Amino acid sequence: MDIKPAVTVEPPDDDGLRKVVIDGKSKGRVWSHRELMKVLRRAGVASEPEIDWRGGSSTTWPAHTWGRRITGAVMALGFLAAACLCTWIGVKDSFDALTFAGRVTGVLFLFMAVVELVAFAAGFDYWHKRKMTYSGPALLFGALVEFFVGSVLLLMFVANNGRPSYMPCLLLWIGLVVCASWSLWILWRLQVWKALRNPGRIAIGAVVSTVLVITNLAYTQIYLPSMSRPLVQGTAEIGTPSLNKAGTKMYLRIRLHLKNSGEVPVHIVGSIYWIHVRVASDPKDKYKLLKPGELVKPPGRELSPGEEISEDVVAEIKNPESVSYEAVAAHVEAYAFRQDRMRMDSDYERSGKWRGKLREEGKDDDPPSPVQDGKEYFRYQSNISQSSELLNLTRGRERVTVWWLYRRRPVVYVDVASPGDKKVFNFKDPEEQRKAVDRYGLAFVRGSLIQTPYSELLRDAQAQRPN
User: Fold this and answer.
1) Is residue 285 classed exposed, middle or buried when 0-12, 13-18 and 19+ CB atoms within 10 A define those classes?
2) 151-189 tens-digit pLDDT
């Protein structure tokens, strides 16, 4: 006669699992009658055994299988989404961030991606057999990291006035926060932290680590950029003039300088110089322009700390002995962006086009500008990206436009906005550029105005006049 093994099914525990004991040996815990049959088949119990049901009959299965599976699937989806997001940011910033702090932040996001992947894997055990002691705490840490990542990205998006084009990302971050909050509520009710030996100490360590991470982000993204400002100086020197043999022309050599005297490298996106004379006979016309031009060619050039750009230009004055000038003046202006705050496309230096060419291409009003009164201009334009992928996601990519406007006194204007922005740039409103100043360290370089009395220059030129 066959001896049937003694099978005992213990009462459900707090999680709804029922322990299966065969001939005094534990064979695991099961969620449902179907899983019980699988355990019996693996144990070699071929025929229907007599089961000693304790704490409930064969219909007592308090753990709802489908509800448990749906809960685990939603948590796993949240962990996987957070892991992909952290991996994307981490890989990009670990290798390509413009600052050391940005690369450290990238490594931190890679670490959080690993935590999310561990939580994703732990979910298969916790919502199935729960053979691993720490699968529950792993889910808890994963939910905390998911909530942290979503919250940080949301806060940075709001603080940086994120672009509407990044609405899908915004919905993803909101989804992460909602999913993480729901997961934390579920795991808190299940008291998964009880599997840890010293949950209090671990909680304190997690809080301290979170505070350190937030402090690092605030220090690198807010404090450091606000403390170090670019310092670019522009100067001009008027050299010794000369006359031609006939004395009908005087040539002035002017040396122009642009130097980075600060501690951070910069991009010179636009520059201009003026050489003009002060007219004594007409007080209404204070200056008469002799020669304007660009100092930095091609624009977009990098200027490292201590590096200087110098250029000699020659201005011509006709009939120097018959004009009534008081002084000759030279002046330099430029716009510079911090190199550690942004990247520019490599084709910026070749993007310069006249207004007529832009009109042919249908781009003469992109972005909109008040230059609609017939004045000619030359325009440079380039897409720019932030110093890190974290900022690219929360701020969005933007575009810098530089107008070299020809008029009675040529000027240079700079605008930074997102591509497709239809707001008209106001040349006369300094508030328009405040955002660029804060984000990219935009520096407006107003060089010192150098003047030399015209009579002195004429006397020096006559003294060197060839016989």
Assistant:
1) exposed
2) 989 888 887 766 655 678 888 999 999 999 999 898 888
Helices (H), 191-327: 199-218, 224-227
Q: How far does CA 87 lie from the centroid of its chain?
A: 16
Residue with tokens 């040539």: 251
Phi, psi of 10 (to 5 degrees): -75, 165
- Residue 322 has a pLDDT of 84
- Please state, in angstroms and as integers, the Cα–Cα distance from residue 208 to each residue in 14, 136, 142, 205, 285, following that order: 32, 21, 17, 5, 67
**Segment among 51-65, 348-362, 422-436 with least mean pLDDT:** 422-436
DSSP of 3-37: -PPPEEEPPP-TTS-EEEEETTEEEEEESSHHHHH
Phi, psi values for residue 366, rounded to 5°: -135, 105
Tell me the C-alpha distance between 226 and 223, whole Å. 5
Give the pLDDT mean for 400-412: 83
Question: Comparing C-alpha atoms, which of 276, 211, 268, 194 is closest to residue 441?
Answer: 268
Tokens of 250: 């005087």
- What predicted TM-score, i.e. pTM, was given to this entire model? 0.71
* Tokens read off for 409: 């006194």
| Residue 9 exposed, middle or buried by CB count within 10 Å (0-12, 13-18, 19+) | buried
Q: What angle do CA 103, 348, 236 make, to 5 degrees?
A: 100
C-alpha to C-alpha distance for 376 and 334, rounded to whole angstroms: 20
Label each residue of 322-375 as H, E or C.
CCCEEEEEEEEEEEEEECCCEEECCCHHHCCEEHHHHHHHCCCCCCCCCCCCCC
Rounded to an integer, what distance in angstroms lies between the CA atom of residue 421 and that of residue 399?
10
Give residue 37's pLDDT.
76
Query: Residue 356 above 50 pLDDT?
Result: yes
CA–CA gap between residue 184 and residue 190 (Å, rounded): 10
